[in-house]
Design brief:
The structure is a single chain. The chain is α+β, with helices and mostly antiparallel strands and about 325 residues long. The protein folds into 2 domains: about 5-120 and about 225-270, DNA primase, PRIM domain, CATH 3.90.920.10; about 125-220 and about 280-300, Alpha-Beta Plaits (2-Layer Sandwich), CATH 3.30.70.3300. Helix content is about 30%, strand content about 15%. It has helices spanning about 25-45, 95-105, 135-150, 180-195, 260-265, 270-275, 285-290, 295-315, and strands at about 5, 10, 50, 60, 75-80, 85-90, 105-110, 125-130, 160, 165-170, 200, 215. The strands form 4 sheets. It has a 5-stranded mixed sheet, with helices on one face. A hairpin with a 4-residue loop joins strand 5 and strand 6 (about 85-90). The longest helix is centred in the N-terminal third of the chain and has 19 residues, at about 25-45. InterPro entries: LigD_pol_dom, NHEJ_LigD. One of its GO terms (molecular function) is ligase activity. It comes from Actinoplanes campanulatus.
Length: about 325
């Protein structure tokens, strides 16, 4: 039997979200409902990609709105350079849209780094990714290096769990920051953090070059996305990307924050909004240094080709 909330039809609410979720579709809708006042501000006016998990299918990321989307769902059309076409994204600007997305089994919410119609990123973002055999504590140690590198130039950010094993650091930026300058600044922050403790952290984009160190991922720039604060993740137990105070990082684990536990932990608080510093201007020296550092993906692509060629030559296939 279907139900409605705010006129939005909801179906199959008592089905498990996905195998191992330990939560139903109703749990997801209830979470989006109680969290809307805190979740909508981090999504508002940002072209939104979602990860959906349909029954019997692998999870997939959806960017383009399906043709059956109700007319009342806000949207923005963006030219996608990679696919050479226009993509129509939803804008999660209201509670009804959250209900509709939840009913579509949209578990994860990955907003754009810029608002619709803007070409200026709103945050500098660092993604701390621990090695496969490393735990959350390694990511936290990497985040502290990033915090120090930022503090050295008078900048500061807020931190949250990724909802997986990693940590995200967000630095709010003053209006008007250029995409290329933000990307360059992120590369420089990563390089400076790496120099603080090269035994712990690395900027190596190629996984085999990391040698058990935490990866300082500075690639969340331009057209990239990142899981929003308070977004559930499509992982066992449905963990949530959750804001944590810098002083509390050593006392928590990602598993503390799930679809079921987060509303009770928060009460009426919004620690992401409360912990976010005021917008900051990019340090000119940081930007200048970053522009001298190659773009990681491009560098990795060339290096991958070089290594493949060397292997062929070593095998006598040159």
């Amino acid at each position: 039997m279907g139900e409605e909330r705010d006129g939005v039809p909801l179906t199959n609410l008592d089905q498990e979200l996905f195998p191992g979720a330990g939560a139903t579709k109703r749990d997801l809708i209830d979470y989006l409902d109680v969290m809307a006042g805190r979740f909508l501000p981090v999504l508002r006016d940002r072209p939104l990609s979602v990860i959906r998990v349909l029954r019997g299918q692998d999870r997939f990321m959806q960017k383009n709105l399906p043709k059956y989307t109700p007319d009342w769902v806000p949207r923005a059309t963006v030219w996608a350079e990679s696919s050479h076409r226009e993509v129509t994204y939803p804008l999660a600007n209201d509670r009804r849209t959250l209900y509709w997305l939840g009913n579509q089994r949209a578990v994860e919410y990955h907003p754009a780094l810029m608002t619709a119609g803007s070409t200026h990123p709103t945050h500098l973002i660092m993604d701390l990714d621990p090695p496969e055999d490393g735990g959350f504590g390694v990511a936290v140690a990497g985040a502290r290096l990033v915090r120090q590198a930022l503090a050295d130039i008078g900048m500061s950010g807020a931190v949250k769990t990724s909802g997986a094993k990693g940590v995200h650091v967000f630095v709010p930026l003053a209006e008007g920051a250029a995409v290329e300058d933000v990307a360059a600044a992120q590369r420089a922050v990563a390089a400076r953090a790496e120099r603080l403790d090269p035994e712990l952290a690395t900027t190596a984009f190629i996984r085999e070059d990391r040698h058990g160190r935490v990866f300082l991922d500075a690639t969340r720039a331009g057209g990239a996305t990142v899981a929003a604060a308070y977004s559930p993740r499509a992982r066992p137990g449905v963990p949530v990307s959750f804001p944590v105070g810098w002083d509390d990082l050593d006392r928590v684990t990602p598993a503390d924050f799930t679809l079921r536990t987060v509303p009770g932990l928060l009460g009426d608080r919004d620690p992401w909004a409360a912990g976010m510093p005021a917008p900051q201007r990019l340090d000119p020296g940081l930007v200048a240094e970053g522009h001298t550092i190659p773009v990681a993906r491009v560098q990795a692509m060339h290096e991958g080709k070089r290594r493949a060629r060397a292997r062929r030559e070593a095998a006598g296939e040159g």
